[in-house]
Amino acid sequence: MTYSICACDLGAGQWGVATQSKFLAVGSVVPWAAPQVGAIATQAYANPQYGPDGLELLRSGCSAAEAVERLTAADDDREQRQLGIVDAAGRGATFTGSGCSAWAGGRVGDGYAAQGNILVSAATVDALADTFDSSASRPLAERLLDCLAAAQAAGGDRRGQQSAALLVVERNGGYAGLSDTLVDLRIDDHGHPVEELRRLFGLHHALFGKTPRADWLPVDDTLRAEIDDRLAALGHSTLDDWAGVENLEERVDGSDRIDPVVLAALRDAR
Fold first, then answer.
1. 160, exposed or middle or buried, with CB in 10 Å at 0-12, 13-18, 19+?
2. End residue of a domain, out of 158, 181, 208
């Protein structure tokens, strides 16, 4: 009742999972990832221990295929499980037990493992894989969102839609440079969860994305006066104060230059 893709961008040092299901809060069960270790999706009649146990196997030096073999071999209910893993080297492996409801299956390729069960057809998994294969130049999170959208357009979960999730990790790539969680967004119950997940990702990128410093705007006297006037009209004495209220503090650094995303948000503020 779920489709997912585990994937990595080795150049960026990122691993992630994207998933959609006719299941409440799929993000609480399916996706697992750790930077420089790998990414795992556990689904169908899911065994949640495949997540932490699988990451430990990868940390110990197992390849994706070896981790899949060891997890399923130790599980008496493996024929009801589905599992995808991408390891630290970008190798993918997928497993679909014989007891998973049709259509069920998976595909692996360079840097990914795609799988699904109770699907309309194999076209859903093919869309996951083909979309990932054709988007190598784009950021991992955006590629994974595109994979979900393509899979849904190809038929998706045979029972319908309910929840979706996106998890991407990078060493010290998250909030304040102190978290390994780059993106962790979940749509727990929604009529169109993939579209809603993309909307939330847009908000996430606006708040926590990074504009290259070379693209920041110099604050000359004219722009400084405009910023000060706008802040005063909003009841704030400094840009830091206002940015903290609007959750844009990650995009503010000093007063000589300003992130254009921050300036646009300030100009739109009422």
1. exposed
2. 208
Q: Are residues 163 and 187 in the same domain?
A: yes
pLDDT for residue 27: 98
pLDDT digits (tens, 9 = 90+) for 172-207: 999 999 999 999 999 999 999 999 999 999 999 999
pLDDT tens column, 207-216: 999 999 999 9
Provide the CA 57 distance to its chain's centre, in angstroms.
Answer: 22
- Judge contact between 122 and 168, C-beta under 8 A: no
- In the block, tokens 């679909």 appear at 96
Distance CA(193)–CA(85), nearest Å, equals 23
* pLDDT of 54: 98
Q: Which parts of the chain register pLDDT below 70? A: none
Cα→Cα distances 147→1, 114, 119, 168, 215, Å: 17, 10, 15, 14, 30
Do 81 and 182 fall within a single domain? yes
CA-based nearest residue to 43, from 67, 65, 18, 10: 18
Which of 22, 44, 31, 18 has its CA nearest to residue 191? 22
Place of tokens 């556990």: 42
Average model confidence (pLDDT) for the chain?
97
111 by DSSP, 3-state: which?
A: coil
Residue 204 burial (CB < 10 Å; 0-12/13-18/19+)?
middle
Tell me the β-bridge partners of 87. Answer: 38
Please give the residue range of the domain that contains residue 156.
2-208
Task: Give the integer Cα–Cα distance in Å for 103 and 95.
Answer: 14
Place of tokens 């499980």: 81
